[in-house]
Structures are given as C-alpha cells and as structure tokens.
Design goal:
Shape of chain B: elongated
Strand content of chain A: 15-25%
Mean pLDDT of chain B: 84
Mean pLDDT of chain A: 90
Number of strands of chain A: 4
Order of helices and strands of chain A: EHEEHHE
Number of helices of chain B: 9
Number of strands of chain B: 3
Structural class of chain B: mainly alpha
Largest interface: A-B, 25 and 16 residues
Structural class of chain A: alpha+beta
Oligomer: heterodimer
CATH topology of chain B: Rhopdopsin 7-helix transmembrane proteins
Distance between the termini of chain A: 32 Å
Strand content of chain B: under 5%
Distance between the termini of chain B: 92 Å
Radius of gyration of chain A: 14 Å
Chain lengths: 82, 333
C-alpha cells in the first residue's frame, strides 16, 4: 500500500475519527453506515473520545439491527487534542 | 452345511415334501393318460406364461435389478416363450399348422432350447459384470433377431430335420440335446463359481432348475413316440423347472429388490450419522483452533493506548467472524 506522507498542524480541540472499512461499508436496508457516520460524529464530537466511541457504537448497533458484529471486521479509534 | 445336516425332518414335513412333488406328478400323469395333447398343451402353455411373466416383470424392473441376470433371463425367455408357444400349437394332433407331423414341433423345441441355453450361458457370463453390461434395449433387439432368424430357418426348412416319421429322433436332434445339456451344465458350473453374486436361495433355485432341465433334455433323447413315456417324463421335469423359474422370478425381481433397497437406505442412514459425527468433531477442532488464533490476534491489539500529554484516545474493535484481520496501535514518535 502506498500512503503519502504529509504534515498537518492540529489546533487544540481537534478530534479525529479513524475507522476501517468494516464500519462504513456495513449495509442495512440499502444504506451504507458511512452515509450516517459523519452526522453522528459531528453531533458528539465535543464529548471525550470514550464517549464518542460509545455514541457511535450505540448508533451503529441501532443501525445494524441490534448487533455490533458486521460483515467485515470493525475497528475505530478517536484521537482528541485537549 | 452343518446347519442343514442338523435339521431334523419330522415325518410330517417329509410327507408334505413328498406330496408337493407326488401330487402334481400324479395329477399330470392322470391328465396325460386321459388326453396327452391336453397334458402337453397345459405344461407348454404354463411354460410360455411363466416366460412371458418373467419378461414383463424382469423388463419393467430392470432399473432396480441388483444384478443383470434377471434382465437377460427376461429377454431370453421372451423368445423361448414365444417359440415354446409355437411348439405347443404345432404339436402333432393340434391341427394349427399345415405340416401335421412331429418334425416341426421337435424343431421348434430344439430351437427354443438353443435359445434357452444361450440365455443361461449369457446370464452366467455377465453375472457380476455390471460395468461391461450392454444396454438392455440393445440386448432385446439381439434376442428378438435371434428368435426371428430361428423361426425363419425352421418355417422355411433351413433347420435340420429333427424327427423322421417311422424312425424317430434324428442324430442332429439327439446330439443337440446332449450339446444343450452340456451348455446347461456349464452354465450351472459358472453360476456356482460366481455364487457370491447370488443369494443362497436363488443359487439353489437356479442350480435345481438347471438340473431338472438337463434331466428333461436327457428324457427327450430317449423317446421314439412323441406321445411316449419319456416324452411325458421330459415334460414333467419341464413342469418343475417352470415352477422353480417362477419362484426365482418372484424372489429376485419382486421381493428382493425392495428388501435390498431398504437395506441400502438403512446403510446410507448409518453412514450419514457417522459422517455427521465426524463433521461435528472437525467443526469442534476447527473452533478450538479459531479460539487459539483469536487469542493470538487479541494479544497483538493494545490493552492500553499510550498516555500522551495533551492527546486522548479511545478505540473500539469488533471482529466480523471469530478471527479478525484488523490491527491498530498508537505509537509515540
């Protein structure tokens, strides 16, 4: 895999959400979770990383008919600058 | 063998066995005295009917037949039955065919016996050779062609003379009977050698039937008058041969296939059960392997994300199946 290196200066209060494709490509009734995720993230981005993760997980569970398990592995990580 | 010897026959069962043979023989003898033509016609008609039944049953159950013996017998005896019927109709005194002598029925008789012995030799040869067996439809054509050619030879006088009025049986006829008997003997030997392909009951029936046929053929070398004693005796042997053939037919084509089918179903069920247990074992072992692999995978995932001043982290991981392929970690560079 070729990734390009670049530098970015982050300001205090920046929150970054990392995830694998298992999360965004999970489908339910023809909708990808990737279409819903940004909204959930923005709504909760002021919370602590643990709470953001919990909020996303709960939202995903509702989206995915009550299960946290997807068709692919799901990993997500939140990094927040204080 | 010992089991057979240990059976103690009571007087009553002996009497029953004796009556089973003596009663029909007695009745048929009385019938032959009353009207020999009627006796002959009944025995031959019965033979033709059994041959026809053998064909109908054998042909229509050919797809379930466990060995091809019954198919060959069915086809062969169809031809034999037809020729035997003509033999019966052409018998001296019947007045069906214009040639009202003993030659035509004797020729038909010999012709039918040749087909019969070829059928049995063919059956013995193909017994247990399921892979090399020709298609039944093809065999039917062969047998019918043989029958038609034989009838043409007989009715158009190409067939050797078998009976001379005033002299009796010709050398050809007597020689043929010996040849045919030799053929039956050979078939019997082959059947015995290949007995693992037959049930004991069928083997016994077939060998007894062959023995009776040979006795019947031997009787037919001896008569001078076609209404004489040895002709009567030959037809008596034939009568018992027919009853045995009928029993073999019922056993092999009607009762056994279903028993065999049932046995096969039970065996398949047991096999499936065994396979299912094996599958479960394999599944369990695979599961254990998966658990181990998962443990290894989980070990590679960080328990605690690094504490970096000014930055906080949180992570979530959920594998799709038991064993995942996602990895993540945080490093302070």
């Amino acid at each position: 895999m070729n990734f390009q290196e670049s530098k970015l200066t982050l300001t205090s209060g920046t929150t970054i959400f990392f995830n694998t494709d298992g999360l965004t490509e999970q489908q339910a009734s023809g909708v990808y979770y990737g279409e819903i995720l940004p909204k959930v993230f923005y709504e909760n981005s002021r919370l602590s990383p643990q709470l953001i993760i919990r909020a996303v997980c709960e939202d995903f569970r509702r989206f995915n008919n009550g299960s946290l398990q997807g068709t692919d592995d799901i990993t997500c990580l939140v990094m927040q600058l204080n | 063998m010992r089991k057979v010897l240990n059976v103690r026959y009571s007087g009553f069962t002996c009497l029953i066995a004796f009556l089973k043979i003596a009663l029909p023989v007695g009745c048929l003898y009385l019938l032959s005295l009353y009207n020999y033509l009627l006796y002959h016609s009944l025995v031959e008609l019965l033979a033709s009917l059994v041959a026809l039944a053998l064909f109908i049953v054998g042909w229509n159950t050919r797809t379930f037949a466990q060995n091809n013996l019954m198919i060959i017998l069915a086809l062969g005896f169809l031809v034999v039955g037809i020729i035997d019927l003509l033999h019966m109709l052409s018998y001296k005194g019947m007045g069906v065919f214009p040639q009202n002598d003993a030659n035509l029925p004797t020729q038909l008789w010999i012709g039918a016996r040749y087909v019969e012995v070829l059928t049995l030799l063919c059956g013995a040869f193909y017994l247990g050779k399921k892979d090399e067996f020709p298609r039944p439809e093809f065999l039917l054509k062969i047998f019918l062609a043989v029958g038609v050619l034989l009838l043409i030879a007989i009715f158009f006088n190409f067939f050797p003379v078998c009976y001379l009025e005033g002299e009796g049986l010709t050398v050809f006829k007597v020689f043929s009977e010996y040849l045919i008997s030799g053929g039956f003997l050979l078939a019997g030997i082959i059947f015995y050698k290949k007995r693992e392909h037959l049930t004991d009951k069928i083997l016994r029936l077939v060998l007894t039937a062959l023995g009776l046929t040979i006795l019947s053929e031997m009787s037919f070398t001896l008569y001078v008058d076609i209404y004489g004693f040895f002709n009567f005796l030959g037809h008596i042997f034939k009568f018992f041969f027919i009853t045995l053939l009928y029993r073999a037919l019922i056993e092999e084509s009607l009762q056994n296939p279903y028993q065999l089918l049932f046995k096969k179903i039970v065996a398949t069920n047991k096999d499936l059960e065994k396979k299912s247990i094996e599958l479960e074992k394999v599944y369990r072992r695979l599961n254990e392997e998966m658990d181990k692999a998962r443990a290894i995978h989980e070990q590679t995932l960080p328990d605690d994300l690094p504490e970096i001043k000014g930055i906080s982290f949180a992570a979530h991981y959920h594998p799709a199946l038991k064993l995942g392929g996602d990895f993540y970690n945080m490093r302070n560079l």
